[in-house]
Amino acid sequence: MRNFSLAFIADAVHRRGGQERAAAEVLSRISRRISVTVIAKECDLGDAPVRWIPVRAPRRPSVLRTWAFARAARAAEHRANCTITNSIGAAARDADVITAQFCHAAFTARFGGIRGGSGLRAAYQRFAQSRFTADERRAYSSPRLKRVIAVSEGTARELQEFYHVPRELIAVVPNGVDGAVFRPAADAAARRALRERLSLPAGEFIALFVGGDWERKGVRDAIAAITGLTGTRLVILGTGDVGAMKAHAIKLGAERQVMFPGASRAPQDWYAACDAFVFPSRYEAFSLVTLEAAASGLPIVAHAINGTEELVRDGENGWLVPFGAHALREKIELLRDDPARRARMSAAAVASSRRYDWDRIADEQFTVFQAAATLATGGATSSARSAP
């Protein structure tokens, strides 16, 4: 019996963003059990005992960046000499384990692969999506592949439908949330203090959106949904085309109802200060922000997409609504006008988030890595961490 080691390949690993943060949470935990080498352009895991092999690649255009990164990562993987390799999607040309945080073929089939824009920009997006889909198809069809981690049941179905990944290779392990960080305000006084510090109005109903890629994630619909609702505001937390969304709000007459504070290093404060979470995204694998909203006690108003359809119990901790601003608006009004309902749904949201504790998620992923390592070595593996 001998220890197994893991090489992890992704563009970046840190506690910002979505899949970058998910990777950071898992690797910071399992690196205390086995030897982990991160192969990435950027890595910030604090004091976690990992080795980092930096990889350089151009920032733009995206098609050249992914090609150059995968090529450089392959060379770094050989130097790392680990038992198995885990890749986020097609970050690596192939891997023993792939973690599916997106499915480009599904996104292209259902929404054309367009994230906003027209003309040359849209044409380039279609071209880029075709390349990303081809890269994923190659990675998922590799004979080297031993296991796939899908972060939702919906993503697992997409991998089978679009890439013909055998179901027996897929383990569904969702993303997670740290309930010690994301939690409701301690009491009404603490909530008032948060609003004052964040320059939020004390007496209004505040809906929150968190994320980037605003066109795909339906920010225009979120703005339209709150337009004209008395005593209601929308906070859009994150980075995106502020100019375009401000212009949209002005066109609708909602410019005074929408706030754009930008990205935050303490998003937990914004969750705890708001009343509801509005997330009209058209496509996700399993969004971290919905888990963070639930853990923070925010009822969720969203569409029935991957991950969200597993988290949200309609009418209990939120609602799954049809596409379009009208359906969003109806539920926002219900929450605004019924504080008792809002309190019940807040408690249910917190309770529903507990299954997604990061310690549990890391344990489930570790089990998948262990199975892949056993296949890679013919059974000669141990889960103990090797001495530094």
* Number of structural domains: 2
Gross morphology is globular
Here the CATH topology of the largest domain equals Rossmann fold
Question: How much of the polypeptide forms β-strand, as a percent range?
Answer: 15-25%
Helix content: 40-55%
From the alpha carbons, calculate the radius of gyration and give it in angstroms: 21 Å
Give me the strand/helix succession. Answer: EEHEEEHEEHHEHEHEHEHEHEHEHEHHH
Q: How does the helix and strand content classify structurally?
A: alpha/beta
- Give the averaged pLDDT, no decimals: 94
Structure summary, number of beta strands: 15
Overall description:
By secondary structure, the protein is an alpha/beta fold. The chain has two domains: 5-176 and 357-377, Rossmann fold, CATH 3.40.50.2000; 188-355, Glycogen Phosphorylase B (Rossmann fold). It is built from 14 helices and 15 strands. The strands form three sheets. A seven-stranded parallel beta sheet has the order 5-3-1-6-7-8-9, with helices on both faces. The protein has a six-stranded parallel beta sheet with strand order 12-11-10-13-14-15, sandwiched between helices. α1 (19-30) crosses α14 (358-377). Residues 382-388 have low confidence and may be disordered.
Characteristic key phrases:
388 residues, disordered C terminus, alpha/beta, Rossmann fold, single chain, 2 domains
Strands, helices and their partners?
Layout: E1 5-9, E2 12-13, H1 19-30, E3 35-40, E4 42-43, E5 51-54, H2 62-80, E6 84-88, E7 97-100, H3 104-111, H4 119-140, E8 147-150, H5 153-163, E9 170-172, H6 188-197, E10 205-210, H7 219-226, E11 232-237, H8 242-252, E12 258-262, H9 267-273, E13 276-279, H10 288-295, E14 300-302, H11 308-311, E15 318-320, H12 325-337, H13 339-353, H14 358-377
Parallel strand pairs: 1-3, 1-6, 2-4, 3-5, 6-7, 7-8, 8-9, 10-11, 10-13, 11-12, 13-14, 14-15
